[in-house]
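thought: user wants a sequence for this fold. calling inverse folding tool.
action: design(structure=
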């Protein structure tokens, strides 16, 4: 299968997620742009970020591709939940748009497949399917997405008891076996360099790490917990 040249450039590389949560001191587009630039200097091949202001600010600061999304809400489909959100991400400067690929209801009534179809009719963009299960990855492949990712795999309603605190290596291996040559990116719970290496060894096209690199509040809490245990 043909792979988009931009997606091909990410093979075997690190993508860094640069996001801050509402109410945090770092939640400011200029701060996010500075962190993104620092990650680029460290060797990140792309930046994943959320929100129109952050996408635009980071796009103006780095030379590597931007994977953009727009989170709205906390339950159900909240990662780029509608066509409107997806088009806005493209217009803000995202090179790749990440969209929840589950079959859960969306605020605008479209299915995931309809969202991808209508987005491609309006915009020239690369689409990343954020997946929870192998069924979601199949859905993303079937409707012509350029990339699938394991972003939502730790949010399954019934968590697989074989999952530990690391990435979902079983899902990666299953997807790599079923769709050889298709870009399936590991995202979620990549907390150490060893986690990232294990994801590549399991068949990941590339690896996204966020919290362990760009979220000092979480990193500080990990050290604090270890010291006080």
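)
observation: tool returned 229 residues.
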């Amino acid at each position: 299968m043909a792979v988009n040249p931009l997606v091909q450039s990410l093979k075997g590389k690190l993508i860094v997620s640069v996001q801050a949560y509402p109410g945090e001191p770092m939640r400011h587009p200029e701060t996010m742009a500075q962190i993104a630039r620092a990650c680029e200097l460290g060797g990140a091949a792309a930046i994943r970020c959320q929100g129109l202001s952050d996408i635009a600010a980071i796009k103006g600061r780095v030379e590597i591709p931007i994977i953009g999304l727009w989170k709205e809400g906390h339950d159900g489909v909240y990662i780029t939940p509608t066509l409107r959100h997806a088009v806005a991400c493209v217009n803000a400067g995202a090179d790749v748009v990440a969209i929840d690929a589950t079959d859960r209801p969306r605020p605008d009534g479209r299915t995931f497949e309809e969202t991808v179809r209508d987005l491609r009719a309006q915009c020239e963009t690369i689409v990343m399917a954020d997946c929870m299960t192998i069924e979601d990855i199949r859905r993303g492949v079937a409707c012509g997405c350029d990339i699938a990712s394991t972003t939502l795999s730790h949010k399954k309603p019934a968590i697989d008891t074989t999952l530990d605190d690391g990435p979902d290596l079983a899902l990666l291996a299953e997807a790599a076996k079923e769709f050889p040559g298709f870009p399936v990116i590991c995202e979620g719970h990549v907390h150490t360099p060893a986690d990232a290496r294990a994801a590549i060894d399991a068949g990941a096209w590339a690896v996204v790490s966020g919290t362990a690199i760009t979220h000092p509040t979480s990193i500080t809490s990990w050290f604090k917990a270890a010291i006080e245990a």
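thought: summarizing for user.
answer: Here is the designed sequence. The mean pLDDT is 95.
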